Amino acid sequence: MPDIAERSALILVDVQYGFMPGGGLPVAGGDEIVPVINALAPHFQNAVLTQDWHPADHISFAANHPGREAMESISLPYGEQVLWPTHCVQGTRDAALHDGLRVPQAQLIVRKGFHREVDSYSAFLEADRRTTTGLAAYLHARGITRLYLCGLATDFCVAASAVDARAAGFEAAVIEDACRAIDADGSLARAWSDMQAAGVRRLTAADIPAELGAA
Ligand code: VGL
Ligand code: ZN
């Protein structure tokens, strides 16, 4: 059995300009996680990045629903969808990964939210809950059994990815100080309770060396 460091992967969720101050969907303090991630990353042999990657006419954008405002919810065939300000449009600077990230060992970037009619908070399954990104199969094939998640935003894409990671059979932990939240209408508290119910552990960056058997 390979040791735990070989079987672990760091999953960096949506560390993109769109979620930084000044971005399309800014998350308070979003840029503060970059140095935290850069300090964590050298502990990991395996890393995967996700990238929110929407067409300009994406169904999750309030601007594509005349008369609607950002942060309202609408009913779609797959369920309730929050309408967001326009963010992370394919090929724009807003969609680019933060230039300051230092994770050279990352081998895979999963782009999500590119189907016009389906959003995808999760790195594993789109919001229709049927369309897979292929990430679980990739990680299983690579012999990865444990995931450490961080990035933006804690209460949307990080939480959805962590809960789906558990459903796909992985151990999962969220590194809280390497995340920042949107926290609209109690979404952060709800996300932590959903993650806890799913068996996602809540860690800080200081826990990581010991987790990986390095301390
Ligand atoms: C996200 C809302 C819309 C996220 C992405 O990365 O958490 N949230 N698109
Ligand atoms: Zn999005």
Walkthrough of the structure:
This protein is α/β, with parallel strands linked by helices and 215 residues long. It has a single domain, classed as 3-Layer(aba) Sandwich (Rossmann fold). It is 20% helix and 22% strand. The chain contains five helices and eight strands. It has helices at 33-40, 135-141, 154-167, 187-197, 208-211, and strands at 8-13, 47-52, 73-76, 79-82, 106-112, 146-152, 171-180, 201-203. The strands form two sheets. Strands 5-2-1-6-7-8 form a six-stranded parallel beta sheet. A two-stranded antiparallel sheet has the order 3-4. Strand 6, helix 3 (154-167) and strand 7 (171-180) form a beta-alpha-beta unit. Helix 3 (154-167) packs parallel to helix 4. The longest helix is centred in the C-terminal third of the chain and has 14 residues, at 154-167. 42% of the residues are buried. The model has no long low-confidence stretch (mean pLDDT 97). It binds pyrazine-2-carboxylic acid (VGL) and zinc ion.
In short, what is this structure?
The chain has helices at residues 33-40, 135-141, 154-167, 187-197, 208-211, and strands spanning 8-13, 47-52, 73-76, 79-82, 106-112, 146-152, 171-180, 201-203. With 215 residues, it is α/β, with parallel strands linked by helices.
